[in-house]
Description:
By secondary structure, the chain is an alpha+beta fold. It has 1 helix and 8 strands; from the N terminus they run αββββββββ. It starts with a helix and ends with a strand.
Amino acid sequence: MVRYLIGAILVLLAGYGSIEAWPLLWGPALSIASPADNASFPDGIVEVSGRAARSALLTLNGASLLHDQSGTFSSTLTFPRGGSILTFAATDRFGRTVTATRTVFVP
Length: 107
């Protein structure tokens, strides 16, 4: 009886450990809510927002972008006339990086 109890506890601990380690195995995730790709902004003011899950560093075109503990970020940027390419990069504490690109146009 004691063997089964110890076995059940070990299985529960292994399951819990797997659930807690799962995000570390996946690496960072990046979701851009705004701007939409190929969007046009007549006034040149662009709101960027989204979520970078499991990331230690978030950058936009190489410059740091602040995000909260849950990974949510939001910023307002001004662009000159013409096209601009926005490259978002989220890097986790193990150096794994994911990127997302958006193109915006200011007429």
